[in-house]
Model the fold of this input.
Amino acid sequence: MKNIEESLRYTLQQIRDAEQQYGRACGSVKLLAVSKTCNKEEILEAARWGQLDFAENYVQEAIEKIKATNNPALIWHFIGPVQSNKTRPIAEYFHWVHSIDRIKIAQRLNDSRPDGYPPLNVCIQMNISGETSKAGIGPEQARELAQAIITLPRLKLRGLMALPAPGHEFAQQRWPFARLQQHLRELQSSFPGMDTLSMGTTNDMVAAIAEGATMVRIGTAIFGPRA
Done:
């Protein structure tokens, strides 16, 4: 097992250094530990050192881990594509969904959220790089989707998410994140409750923080390369 304590400390220090370098408030960027393919022991080890937010891509794998860890302090984020036939378990087991790109999915999540649960925090996924292979929607569709989400009482619209095309140069990494930040600002004039930019991974999190990320999704830097 990779030294998760050491990896978490190093990653958090990178985040704090980037916050300071780019004029962000200390603690304004939350670390989401992407735990797909990780086992229960690795997740509990990360939690032992204070990491409470975990992100998963696959519904069944995630639910097995949520049940196995059995820790109500953990906050679970779904970041993978949402299939219509998986909306019920996602609505039941997760606190956040970062990857909504259709009104139909938003409606199904709302309808499946159990009675007595707080509203499900949701982000709209935008295809900021225009890649045909990537999920997500464009700016005009995002506004329409946001308008629909705010009418659904069991969802809480929080912000935008994107996974742009990989960039090797720092400036190349920054520009799609800057575009996503601009789209958020435009939407905030109509939807002031939107406060989240979910963007940045192990290879480009500093560029994302420079452009306003409030959540970065980090897996490899914490848990090591996936098998």
In short: The domain at 4-223 is CATH 3.20.20.10 (TIM Barrel). The chain has a mean pLDDT of 95. The CA atoms of residues 106 and 149 lie 7 Å apart. The beta strands are 30-34, 53-56, 75-78, 96-100, 120-125, 155-161, 196-198, 215-218.
